[in-house]
Amino acid sequence: MSVCEDMLLCNYRKCRVKLSGYAWVTACSHIFCDQHGSGEFSRSPAVCPACNSALSGKLDIVRTELSPSEEHKAMVLAGLRPETVLDISSRALSFWTYQVHQEHLYQEYTYSKAEGHLKQIEKVYTQQLQSKDMELTSMKSEVSSMKKMLEEYKKNFSELSEKLMERNRQYQKLQGLYDSLRLRNIAMANQEAAHEPPMLPQPAVFGFPLVMLPSSLGMPRRSGAGVGRETSTSNPSLPHPHLRMNPATASSPSPLPAMSWSHILEPAGPTR
Ligand SMILES: [Zn+2]
Ligand SMILES: [Zn+2]
């Protein structure tokens, strides 16, 4: 109720509009705006929408002009006895006082309701705050433990990287040593090769080079390993000037022993 603004509000629960122009006043001391009054009181029997009082009397519902004209004010109470005028004024003032009181009660009720709601919300928020505080505390401790772990990992990492660098240094050192040794070996091999005459591979029997034998016996000279092969796989039917030669009686200038001769000149010998 905006008492300071000197205006009453529509008593319809969902309306509460500031009244002006025409208003509907009831014998149960309620007042409604023109819209709700005309709507509610057109039905029969009329019932007050604020307190459910039956309004069946002829003057139980009155449509009043809230700002009457000067002419109306001049005439409405004219001719009435002073006590009647005062009685009417007193009843009208009582109506006003009741409306202000009702509005005051309504505001108090609304306030207490809002206060209770606020307290409820405060309680919920306090609980949420406490739980969030606890969560925060546990998260802080988690963060600090994580930081500790991170520090440990960092320490381990630096130690391991130092070890790795040390191993790398050792590896480089060993690689350098290996390279120098290899180069030295190659140089030594080259030196040895330069000082010694080149050795040609020669087939040999009993330690004597085969190429020497035919020439010492007057045999036709053949090249390379073919001689040795011929010796072991030669066809016995082929005429050979030395096949009939008796090694024991052969007068040869060769210093080779007789056994060696017969063995080498054996035509049907197994293939070696
Ligand atoms: Zn209304
Ligand atoms: Zn009423």
What's the topology here?
Blueprint: E1 22-26, E2 31-33, H1 34-40, E3 61-65, H2 70-76, H3 82-195, E4 204-205, E5 208-209, H4 212-217, H5 226-233, H6 258-265
Antiparallel strand pairs: 1-2, 1-3, 4-5
Bound molecules: zinc ion (2 copies).
Residues 26, 28, 30, 48, 50-51, 53 line the site of one zinc ion (ZN).
Pfam families: zf-RING_5
Domain RING-type: 10-52
Organism: Gopherus agassizii (Agassiz's desert tortoise)
Short description:
With 272 residues, the chain is mainly alpha-helical. It has helices at residues 34-40, 70-76, 82-195, 212-217, 226-233, 258-265; strands at residues 22-26, 31-33, 61-65, 204-205, 208-209.
CATH topology of the domain at 1-71: Herpes Virus-1
The helix-strand sequence is EEHEHHEEHHH
CA radius of gyration: 69 Å
Number of helices: 6
Quote the beta fraction.
5-15%
Count the E strands.
Answer: 5
Shape: rod-shaped
Residue windows where pLDDT falls under 50 for at least 5 positions = 209-245, 247-266
What is the CATH class of the domain at 1-71? Alpha Beta
Helix amount: 55-70%
How does CATH name the architecture of the domain at 1-71? 2-Layer Sandwich
Give the biggest sheet: 3 strands, antiparallel
User: Which structural class matches the secondary elements?
Assistant: mainly alpha
N-to-C span: 137 Å
Mean pLDDT: 81
Spatial sequence of strands, sheet with the most strands: 2-1-3
In this entry the ligands are: zinc ion
Pfam families: zf-RING_5
Coiled coil: 136-170
Organism: Gopherus agassizii
Keywords: Coiled coil, Metal-binding, Zinc, Zinc-finger
